[in-house]
Design goal:
Structural class: alpha/beta
Organism: Pararge aegeria aegeria
GO molecular function: alpha-1,4-glucosidase activity
Radius of gyration: 24 Å
CATH architecture of the largest domain: Alpha-Beta Barrel
CATH topology of the largest domain: TIM Barrel
Protein name: alpha-glucosidase
Family: Belongs to the glycosyl hydrolase 13 family.
Largest sheet: 8 strands, parallel
Catalytic activity: Hydrolysis of terminal, non-reducing (1->4)-linked alpha-D-glucose residues with release of alpha-D-glucose
Bound molecules: 1-O-alpha-D-glucopyranosyl-D-fructose, calcium ion
Low-confidence stretches: 532-551, 553-557
Number of domains: 3
Length: 557
């Protein structure tokens, strides 16, 4: 695809830098490790890499608490290392997309420290508020937070700062103070962060937690931050995020204009760099709210991540249900916009755990043959599984903040962030440290690793790579989409383009082999080609369909 159109069908590989490849033996992944593995990514056929945050950070939230947006995390390397990564990527035809974290900085940032000190204009960079006076039953007066808001990672979203004598808002951990988007200074400062990296030649951004940018404006509520109503969610305690309905802290309408204004910044670079810059926004929200990120009839926006494969499909989903999930997005998406498919990320259980090992190939295939952008989270191409991380080894604040050494794992994102399993050597080839790796390597690495899968033609990796090769066909790049559930267990996806070989993907969710009657589909040109079928083994690849039916293997026993 051309430099202006590449993003419309980009296969983007999400790299979690801490866990991808450690080049200097300190047990933590780094930029030179990524550069070292670029030839592998090129050989796999991906178009771009998205790097989870690589900026300086004390790691209260694994790098999403940023000290300086224009710096490189020391344990990951230097700015020169980054520029080398960019150059090597470019020489291989791989574009680099960065993580842009606009909702909050880290609490070690200079902006925050100047804000604490009350220095203009930083004084208004964050969401500061006075505490409220309250009285205990015994008559003692005390101060309580400005509202009942709860952090995504449990407990009050307000933290008192002694020096400034006020509370600041943090929708995530205490070390992630929320920026104040009602300040024009913040709006401009963040646009300049985008420009800093665009000037270096990055190809766009994944935008973090964008639906948290704005909170209710006290000016509209008699000068106070309004309390959020109880959600009524079962099993949610008063410290849990799910305890409240987030009507004042999520998806406020002001958000969209900011996203559209970032699009304008990115578009400044189309002429100067001759390349379209992608923007993908992360917002877990209702479909109608996500769709608005695309833009309006007069303004362009971003590509909202489509998280429905993560949230709305499980181990028991039928072919009909999966079809519904696909069709829903395609129906709601405004015409002329680009879809996006996500089957995993660093915040969610692995596909192997969420949808089951039998469905790894099916999910990879769907994500790769549907129209639009697709994201592969590192390790999904080999079907990595959630690793075991003990309470003592736990890093994720979402788990630590439960203070519960027994049930913490229900909230932990560490299991899906364990180091990439390259081979069967020590630390799975991720690191040659003599100590320990930042998170333990999953103990199945001796058998589940890339090297073993490269050696096995029936592996997840070879299946993935074959579909990636097929993805480059005109039919998958541009063809029309048709989805059909022939039964509870057979899902058929076709991509047809007049004058080109069509592409057909069949998912068999049953454990036994089945034969499907293609004539019943009534859409088969004689040159339709099978991309892949079956689940996990015995794939019917590249068979030209001159016959009226094809056998579809069941998943591996
Ligand atoms: O996640 C945003 C977000 O909404 C998360 O709370 C998500 O719902 C949760 O992790 C699911 O378990 C983004 C990043 O992807 C995440 O890693 C960060 O922790 C978070 O923002 C704060 O920056
Ligand atoms: Ca916010």
């Amino acid at each position: 695809a051309s430099d202006l159109d590449w993003w419309k069908t980009a296969l983007i590989y999400q790299i979690y830098p801490r866990s991808f490849k450690d080049s200097n033996g300190d047990g933590t992944g780094d930029l030179n490790g990524i550069t070292e593995k670029l030839p592998y990514l090129h050989d796999t056929g991906i178009d771009a890499i998205w790097l989870s945050p690589i900026y300086r950070s004390p790691n209260y939230d694994s790098g999403y608490d940023i000290t300086d947006y224009r710096s490189i995390q020391e344990e990951y390397g230097t700015m020169e290392d980054f520029e080398r990564l960019l150059n090597v990527s470019r020489s291989l035809g791989i574009r680099v997309v960065l993580d842009f974290v606009p909702n909050h900085t880290g609490n070690e940032s200079e902006w925050f420290n100047r804000s604490i000190a009350g220095e203009a204009p930083y004084n208004e960079y964050y969401v500061w508020a006075d505490g409220l006076n309250a009285t205990y039953d015994n008559g003692t007066v005390y101060t309580k937070p400005p509202s009942n808001w709860i952090s995504n990672f449990r407990k009050s979203a307000w933290e008192f700062n002694e020096v400034r004598g006020q509370y600041y808002l943090h929708q995530f951990v205490i070390g992630q103070p929320d920026l104040n988007y009602r300040s024009n200074y913040v709006q401009e400062a963040m646009k300049n962060v985008l420009r800093f990296w665009l000037d270096k030649g990055v190809s766009g951004f994944r935008v973090d937690a964008v639906n948290k940018l704005y909170e209710a404006d006290p000016n509209n509520y008699g000068g106070v931050y309004p309390d959020e109503p109880l959600s009524g969610a079962a099993n949610a305690g008063p410290d849990d995020y799910e305890y409240l309905s987030h009507i004042y802290t999520e998806n406020l309408l002001e958000t969209y204009d900011v996203v559209y204004s970032w699009r304008d910044v990115l578009d400044e670079y189309i002429t100067s760099q001759g390349e379209y810059k992608i923007m993908m926004t992360e917002a877990y929200a209702a479909l109608q709210l996500m769709i608005r990120y695309y833009g309006t009839s007069t303004r362009n926006g971003s590509i909202p991540f489509n998280f429905s494969f993560l949230g709305d499909i499980n181990k028991n989903s039928t072919a009909w249900e999966i079809k519904t999930v696909i069709d829903r997005w395609m129906t709601y998406m405004p015409s002329g916009r680009v879809a996006n498919w996500v089957i995993g990320n660093h915040d969610q259980s692995r596909v192997a755990n969420r949808q089951g090992v039998d469905r790894i190939d099916a999910m990879n295939m769907l994500a790769l043959i549907l129209p639009g952008v697709t994201i592969t989270y590192q390790g999904e191409e080999i079907g990595m599984e959630d690793g075991y991380v003990s309470w003592n080894d736990t890093q994720d604040p979402q788990a630590c903040n439960t203070d519960d050494p027994i049930n913490y794992y229900l909230h932990s994102r560490d299991p899906n962030r364990t180091p990439y399993q390259w081979d069967s050597t020590a630390h799975a080839g991720f690191s040659n440290t003599t100590g320990s790796t930042w998170l333990p390597v999953a103990d199945n690495y001796l058998t589940l690793n890339l090297a073993a899968q490269i050696a096995n033609p029936k592996s997840h990796y070879h299946f993935y790579k074959d579909v990636v090769t097929n993805r480059k066909s005109p039919a998958i790049q541009e063809g029309d989409l048709d989805t059909r559930a022939l039964s509870e267990s057979i899902l058929v996806v076709t991509r047809l383009l007049p004058g080109e070989a069509g592409m057909l993907g069949v998912v068999n969710l049953a454990s036994e082999a089945q034969t499907i009657d293609l004539t019943s589909l009534r859409l088969l040109p004689s040159d339709l080609e099978v991309v892949a079928s079956g689940v996990n083994c015995a794939l019917e690849k590249n068979a030209t369909l001159t016959k009226s039916s094809i056998p579809v293997s069941g998943h591996c026993a």
